[in-house]
Write the structure tokens for this entry.
Amino acid sequence: MKYKDFEDFLRKKHADQYTGTDDLMPDDYEDWLMDLSADDFIDFGNEYGKVIKSFMKFHGRISN
């Protein structure tokens, strides 16, 4: 799996859209995280759930 947890998933989502310098990235991540709406968290949570489910299917841990 490419993510160790949901926070790692969110960090990757932030990094995919980040265009600043590396030294400002941690602070920008915190600002980005604080600006997410409840709906954003739900959408990211659903997307992360699909990734986890796909991983578990691939490794035979679930059948559906």
Q: What stands out?
A: The chain has one domain: 1-16+33-64. Residues 38-58 form the longest helix (21 residues). DSSP finds three helices and no strands in the chain.
